[in-house]
Amino acid sequence: MIKNLFISFYIPTTLLILIYGSCHPKVQKATRPNILYIMSDDHAFQAISAYGGTLAKLAPTPNIDRLAKEGALFTRATVTNSICAPSRAVLLTGKHSFINGKVDNVQPFDWNQPNFPKIMQANGYQTAMIGKIHLDGIPQGFDYSMVLPGQGHYYNPDFLIDGKLVRKQGHCTEIITETTLDWLKNKRDPNKPFCVLYHQKAPHRNWQPAPKYLNLYDDLTFDAPENFFDNYEGRGRAAKEQEMQIHGHAMWGHDFKMVVDPKGDSTGFHNEFKRFNPKQKSDWLAAYESENEDFKAKYAKLSENEIALWKYNRYIKDYLRTIKSVDDGVGEVLDYLEKAGLAENTIVVYTSDQGFYLGEHGWFDKRFMYEESFRTPLLIRYPKEIKKGTTIKKLVQNLDFAPTLLDYAGIKAPKEMQGASFRQLVSGQTTQWRDAVYYTYYEYPAVHMVKRHYGISTERYKLMHFYHDVDEWELYDLQTDPKEMKNVYDDSKYKDIRTMMHKRLLEIRAEYRDSDANDERFKDAYLKATTK
Ligand code: SGN
Ligand code: CA
User: Fold this and answer.
1) What's the CA-to-centroid distance between 98 and ligand 2, angstroms?
2) Residue 144 belongs to domain spanning
3) Is residue 56 domain-shared with residue 156, that is, in the same domain?
4) DSSP single-letter state for residue 451
5) Does ligand 1 come within 6 angstroms of the Cβ of 255?
6) What is this structure's pTM?
7) Total structural domains in the chain?
């Protein structure tokens, strides 16, 4: 007792706090940063004005862009498996799909495995998950969770609030933003750093805009991408046999919002109104029906290409309308951080679960390792470490999010995590980074019919193997062919590149412990390729 009194008199308070802190990992250090991780669903980088491009001029995203202006924009952020639930599993676990077990949207997800929010929680962070997670089961690792069951609905959606089902009135994007703000304002413990996952459902299919944006972009005509009328020559069967064409696979009702199709048949869209209240339904019909009728009146005289371009416009406008609400939400949350004096000490991330086709190759949806769906937008602001207007061209992946966020929180990532922290890369403290990333896609046969494949990408080259249903290799030179229109795998000029890429592929599959890598079929392919 006397000894204790003596110590407390003679050891300065700060030192005592340090000693206490080091023995008690749960003690707060005031300087630990907060994390606001914002993720939307299917948001293509082509639809974020900070990335430039033609869409951006007509449909800017000023609030998301603030993060790039005040922080960093990643031009080659990629995913390991371009589909919703697997991507989220990679985000949480920091492990490839074939290690965390969630290889496609169908396999169950094991919430009992370690994830980064659990680790943050154990280290004194207050954690919350609000919006779409698309992983079955009750989320683990969160002090608070309000999640959409499965895909969720745009209008009057149900949510699981800490496991209990509750229906909320209104538009999903706005509800998710309001709930996030409410959590930050009223549920947050000001004595703890926070880590909030603010996950929008938008702009996922079927792109239902909020009431106030139903008529946004009405007066505009959007030009389709230059390869919209792609005939897939120069690529293999996978590109030819997919089912994700805007003109061909998207539907008159569900996707193009027609209650009756141009041939006069009911589309089944009226079923979607079951969730709407009368005002929502009448606003909706007022916005779409006269334009639908104008189109149907001239439909018989239109060429196939004209119909395809009308569909493209209906698609892209609805897609961008849903993004407008996402962007508004980002603005509201950023404004709140500023007002509350939290902006300096909060790392804000904006990303998507993967990219999306906005008419490139004639497509919507994702899944392929081709650039538009392989890449994902990534913007990060952290005034204390990241210089304004930074651009990062290196190959980062969603695999890196968990280790990076843990690093910012001052927590060592478990060694089982396969990603790497890019904290030093983005702050300019290092330029050392990996030269290649690995990709796997398994969900086949399934909606959109994208064949199983895996591949490796360096900054310049991409090698892919479609191994199921077909046995085809594709090699792209992204410098000479950024739109990936011509597979050069059998081009003799690329013989050495092909050999080099096969070698790197074998190495990277072993490095990430893809057990399929031991499969004799893949070794045979390598031997064949290198002796050609
Ligand atoms: C739904 C969509 C598909 C989409 C998958 C997976 N159809 O089935 O277009 O590819 O989800 O998307 S829908 O019109 O019913 O939404 S994911 O983002 O959840 O992986
Ligand atoms: Ca998605």
Assistant:
1) 19
2) 13-207+320-431
3) yes
4) P
5) no
6) 0.93
7) 2
